[in-house]
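Dear colleagues,

I hope this message finds you well. In preparation for our joint manuscript, I am sending the 6-phosphogluconolactonase (Zymobacter palmae) sequence together with its predicted structure, so that both groups work from identical material. I would be grateful if you could confirm receipt.
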Amino acid sequence: MIDMQQTPKVRIGQALAEAVADALRTDLAQQERALLIVSGGSTPVPFFEALSQVDLPWERVDVTLADERWVPETDSDSNTGLLKRHFLQNKAAKANFVPLTTQHATAAEGVAELTAVSQKLSWPASVVILGMGDDGHTASLFPDSPQLEEGLTTDAPLLAVTAPSMKTKSRITFSRKQLKNARRHFIHLSGAAKREMFTKAFGGDDIREYPIRSFMDTPVALYWAP
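The corresponding structure tokens are as follows:
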């Protein structure tokens, strides 16, 4: 139950956790395993913490990331580290987490291994949760990335990407096509700047200007908090 005394970000996180849990329960009633794909950043922390407390057969749930920075898990920019601190705890500790990093020096070198691993997951994903940057990027599909066209059009599930605007030199991301291979899509945002950007993105069609637009031709549920 959502506590109305909590901050809007926490309430939205709790509401999203309830929606995701319901989706996973629905799919697990019909299939042996379910796949949940989440995004990193500071916005989803209340969602992660709420979902970690939910009663689910977590041992039948595979969890992975929409994208990942090619940094060690101990790095403050690691989405894997974020999930382990805030989500893969409590009841969700039983989930099968599949990280998007390897021991290779670069994301480009690790793509083949991670592609083989990802193809063993329970596609289509039950849920994909996307974030969005102030520049309209989602996952690691950046407007200024040399690999943007590939990310938007390739049939490959994963690709290594770079972009001048990225803090880390290298990332790995699921492609647009693979992220669309899901039963449900949620966009989780917070703050006035993200609301303004989403409004701009929703009002146009050029997916290369704002890559988040590339997911607006499929049903999505928006969870936004001030």
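For the figure legend, we might mention the following. Residues 147 and 161 are 6 Å apart (CA to CA). The mean pLDDT is 96.

With kind regards,
E.M.
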